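User: New here, any thoughts?
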Amino acid sequence: MVDADHIEARAIALELFVRAILANMISARPDPLGDIEEMRDQFHRNLLLLQGAESEERAERITALIRAKVDQNLDEIRNRVLRGIEIEAAAAGGARN
C-alpha cells in the first residue's frame, strides 16, 4: 500500500517537472505571454467537462482546486519567462554600454 506522503511527493515532483518543460517550451515561442494566456483559457474551458462526471458538489470543489493549481503553475511559468526576458534585456543593455 502506498502512503499519502508518497503520493503527494510524486504529484509535486510531476508538477515541477511539467512546469519546467512548459516554461522552456513556451519561452522559445514568439509570444510566450500570449501563449500562456491561451493555455489558461483552453484549460478553463476544458474543466467544464468534469461537471457531469461526479456529484455536483464534489465536481465544483475538484474543479476549483484544479483551476487554482493550474493558475498557480501558469503564473510560475509566466514569472520564469519574464525573468528570462529581463535577463536578456539587461544583457543587451549592458552590451551597448
